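Q: I'm building a small set of examples for a reading group on sequence design. Run inverse folding on the following structure and report the sequence directly after it, with nothing in between.
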């Protein structure tokens, strides 16, 4: 019976069946083209999001058109089932026309998709060629991370505190994992290349820091011993400072030591705080917390520097005051020379000294002449005298600097 049925198939039915098969082929081709281009566009966007944006907008419109063409094809298939029931030649002709019409629509859609593919092909080829640079950088990042892991493990096995390196290594691993598991990780090509370089650089820094931990431990132990010695040295200055303060109070006017009042107590308090920081550092060294110990030692040094500077101010003040008391004129000579030097430079200008410079220099000469008048009485204020001489010397230097600046501006 089936053989008889095939023998009775009319040319119109055969044409309709051929049209249906052609439509199915066009539908498959269009669907595959759309899927392929969607994947290519995803790669394009991952490589260069900004450049892909216009193409994504164009493809969205194409996708809607392809969806509509697919719906038309399905509607035709549903409307014309090949269920074996008899049809007239005219009916088969109608079926064939329906399938040819939808085939034409899908063929045109396929051509549009092909044209779209050609527009993004050049950009994709360029970007994909650039991808050749990424694998070596990812390999370098992985190798650097592995080296960092080994260095951190060695430091930890040696009983060293590598917590900071471990924390940074965890962050490096996470960034590397994102690159490894998600390709470009949504960063784009340039972003992925930069991220891979950054991972390698940070991993190298972790490795160097971990390898440096034994040296850091030795440096910290040496620093601890050094600061201990310095604490005793600065503490030993307390006695001489008290002696110097007694000399200042006994032999000089209040203006010579008022700003130093309380210096011995401040020095002793600073030394006490330095000892506390030193004790903290010793405990941290015992616990292999090298960075904490370094911070404590830095705080101890800061206290000692302040105390030492304060001690030097007191003992230096006594020496300065003794020298000016012995030779007040000698102390003024430096300031006098500075004023004369400024005067010579001012007079060497075309037309002589400018009026504004001359006024300042004349005022400085008057201040120099007045300065010794303060050295009267049983306890002259030698510090005020020295302070005035220093102010004159500085002002003369400012005049020299202005003259040279003005001269440079004229050339």
């Amino acid at each position: 019976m089936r053989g008889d049925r095939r023998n009775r198939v009319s040319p119109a039915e055969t044409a309709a069946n051929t049209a249906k098969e052609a439509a199915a082929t066009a539908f498959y081709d269009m669907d595959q083209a759309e899927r392929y281009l969607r994947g290519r566009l995803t790669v394009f966007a991952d490589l260069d999001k900004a450049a892909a944006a216009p193409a994504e907008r164009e493809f969205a419109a194409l996708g809607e058109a392809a969806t509509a063409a697919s719906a038309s094809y399905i509607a035709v298939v549903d409307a014309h089932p090949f269920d074996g029931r008899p049809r007239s030649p005219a009916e088969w002709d109608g079926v064939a026309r329906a399938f040819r019409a939808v085939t034409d629509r899908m063929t045109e859609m396929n051509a549009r998709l092909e044209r779209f593919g050609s527009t993004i092909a050049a950009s994709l080829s360029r970007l994909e060629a650039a991808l050749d640079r990424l694998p070596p950088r990812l390999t370098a990042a992985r190798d650097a991370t592995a080296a960092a892991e080994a260095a951190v493990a060695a430091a930890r096995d040696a009983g060293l505190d590598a917590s900071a390196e471990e924390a940074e290594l965890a962050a490096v691993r996470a960034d590397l994992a994102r690159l490894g598991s998600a390709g470009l990780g949504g960063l784009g090509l340039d972003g992925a290349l930069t991220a891979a370089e950054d991972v390698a650089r940070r991993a190298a820094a972790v490795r160097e820091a971990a390898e440096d931990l034994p040296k850091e431990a030795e440096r910290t132990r040496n620093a601890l011993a050094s600061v201990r010695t310095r604490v005793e040295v600065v503490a030993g200055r307390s006695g001489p400072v008290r002696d110097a303060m007694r000399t200042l109070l006994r032999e000089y006017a209040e203006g010579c030591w008022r700003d130093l009042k309380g210096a011995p107590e401040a020095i002793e308090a600073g030394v006490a705080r330095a000892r506390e920081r030193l004790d903290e550092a010793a405990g941290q060294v015992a616990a292999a917390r090298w960075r904490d110990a370094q911070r404590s030692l830095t705080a101890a040094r800061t206290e000692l520097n302040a105390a030492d500077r304060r001690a030097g101010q007191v003992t230096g003040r006594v020496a300065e005051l003794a020298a000016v008391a012995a030779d007040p004129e000698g102390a003024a000579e430096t300031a006098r020379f500075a004023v004369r030097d400024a005067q010579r430079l001012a007079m060497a200008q075309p037309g002589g000294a400018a009026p504004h410079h001359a006024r300042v220099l004349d005022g400085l000469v008057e201040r120099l002449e007045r300065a010794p008048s303060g050295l009267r009485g049983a306890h002259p204020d030698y510090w005020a005298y020295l302070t005035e001489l220093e102010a004159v010397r500085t002002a003369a230097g400012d005049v020299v600097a202005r003259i040279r600046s003005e001269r440079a501006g004229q050339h």
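Confidence is low (pLDDT under 50) at residues 1-6.
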